[in-house]
Amino acid sequence: MKEEEEKEYQIEDAEANADNKEFMLQALKDKASWVLAYASNKLFEDKDLVLKAAAQDGQLLYYASKELRDDKDVVLAAVTNKGLILKYASKRLRGDKDIGMAAIKQDKRAEMFLTDELRKDEDINNFLHPPEGWFYIWDGPFRKILRFAPSPM
Fold first, then answer.
1. Which residue in 64, 103, 135, 149 has the most C-beta neighbors within 10 A?
2. d(C-alpha 57, C-alpha 108), whole Å
């Protein structure tokens, strides 16, 4: 059985299809998310496309419209696989605990983009700076963090 050949995308094709949503969605299906860097501003206002793009490559949040940088679903999808892209989220969402936790779980350096208020949150602070003897386990990007203290002797 012959494996399906991967489609190769050229920059010229991406530029020629900058307004073609179907072309961009196919590029995502083909794991060629780089093609979306050539999508038009109009397409970066399309929540369906941007949500799928951000879930595959969080870096694409950089190109999203101002409105979608303030959309919790889109930003959560992006920071789950590229925590540092939190830099391009709206200030409101940089202060959102779910978004902040997802970002720092993916890359603790995302802390620098959290709002000052969120950095003071007990759960965020304990994750970033665990109390001595504590450790954390998380099971997947959207599941609750489990905190464990050392067992008493």
1. 103
2. 18
User: Residue 46, CB half-sphere, CA atoms under 13 Å: how many?
Assistant: 16
Residue 142 pLDDT greater than 70, yes or no: no
How distant, in Å, are the alpha carbons of 16, 22, 41, 75, 136 from that of 79? 29, 25, 21, 6, 19
Q: What is the mean pLDDT of the chain?
A: 88
CA–CA gap between residue 46 and residue 92 (Å, rounded): 20
Which among 78, 83, 73, 76 is positioned nearest to 63, based on CA atoms? 78
pLDDT single digits (tens) 93-123: 999 999 999 999 999 999 999 999 999 999 9
DSSP-derived letter for residue 64 is S
pLDDT at residue 73 greater than cutoff 90? yes
